[in-house]
TrEMBL record:
<dbReference type="InterPro" id="IPR012349">
    <property type="entry name" value="Split_barrel_FMN-bd"/>
</dbReference>
<protein>
    <submittedName>
        <fullName>FMN-binding negative transcriptional regulator</fullName>
    </submittedName>
</protein>
<dbReference type="InterPro" id="IPR007396">
    <property type="entry name" value="TR_PAI2-type"/>
</dbReference>
<dbReference type="Pfam" id="PF04299">
    <property type="entry name" value="FMN_bind_2"/>
</dbReference>
Length: 206
């Protein structure tokens, strides 16, 4: 990933924070059938130096073949993003030397995948992911709320994935290369537009 030093994010806790906040990632494999990409919700777990990713795929998904081959695997987590209008920069009135750009946050993870066919492992992964996303709801849904034979049949149709994180890169492009007044202008412009509160939150964190 092209990443100028100004935008590089290396704090593991910050990278993990984005991955947990935006768990629907693009799973990309380069196997014998070429490049394949799918959107997959992941959960992040402790383990190793950089963490472990877990997920599941339907058994009809041909990407499983590449994963079973141990194909080169890239997982891309996309955080807040937004168009940035040059009209938001106070410096526009000073010299006019401004152009549109895009602010965004992204984490790229690489690792060696393992496909898991153990139904108990898959059930536990589904249960944990569900509990993560249902927590905080007034009436959280649980896997146990559905008939067991129904869940058992569904689990038979999916395979688990585990990817220990071998490398991780983060890019936070949030107007760090602009003067403080221009950066504040972007924050004010995004607030006025109301289009991307997530990017506003990210920029205000500093």
């Amino acid at each position: 990933m092209h990443c100028p030093t100004t935008f590089r994010e290396e704090r593991l806790e910050a990278l993990h924070g984005l991955m947990r906040a935006y768990p629907l990632a693009t799973l990309i494999t380069a196997g014998s059938d070429g490049l394949v990409a799918n959107l997959v919700p992941f959960s992040l777990h402790d383990g190793g130096e950089r963490g472990i990713l877990r997920a599941h795929l339907g058994r009809g998904n041909r990407q499983l073949d590449a994963l079973r081959e141990g194909a080169e695997t890239l997982v891309v987590f996309q955080g807040p993003e937004s168009y940035v209008s040059p009209s938001w920069y106070p410096s526009k009135a000073e010299h006019g030397k401004v152009v549109p750009t895009w602010n965004f946050t992204v984490v790229q993870v690489r690792g060696e995948p393992r496909v898991i066919d153990d139904p108990d492992w898959i059930r536990a992964q589904v249960r944990q992911m569900t509990d993560n996303h249902e927590s905080g709801r007034e009436h959280p849904w649980q896997v146990a709320d559905a008939p067991d034979d129904f869940i058992t049949a569904l689990i038979a149709g999916i395979a688990g994935i585990e990817i220990p994180v071998l490398s991780i890169e983060g890019k936070w492009k949030a107007s760090q290369n602009r003067a403080p007044a221009d950066r504040q202008g972007v924050i004010d412009g995004l607030k006025a537009d109301g289009r991307c509160p997530g990017m506003v939150d990210w920029m205000e964190r500093g």
